Amino acid sequence: MPRLKCASLLRVFVIFVLLCAWVQIMLSASSGLLDRDGVLIVDDSSSTTTNNMNLPYKEELMSSNDTSAQVLALVPQELHKYLTVHPKNSTANSTEHVTPNNITEIVRLIEKYNDAQTIYNEDIFGPVQEDTIIIAIQVHTRIAYLRHLIVSLAQARDIDKTLLVFSHDYYDEEINSLVKTIDFTKVRAVKLKCNNALHPDVHGHYREAKYTQTKHHWWWKANRIFNQLQCTANHTGLVLFIEEDHYVAEDFIHMLDLLRTTADKNCPKCEILCLGTYLKTFQYHTTSDKRKKQLTLSYIQQVKAANEERRRRQQQTQSWNFQVYPNLYSSTQKLEITPWHSSMHNMGFGFNRTVWNLIKLNQKQFCAYDDYNWDFSLLHLSQNLPGREKFHVVLSKGPRVFHIGECGIHHKKSNCNPSTVVNKVQRLLKDAKKYMFPARVVSTVTAGGVKQNKKLVKGNGGWGDVRDHDLCTNMTKIGRQMRKDNLYLNMK
Question: Considering the chain, what percentage of its residues have pLDDT values greater than 70?
Answer without folding.
Answer: 65
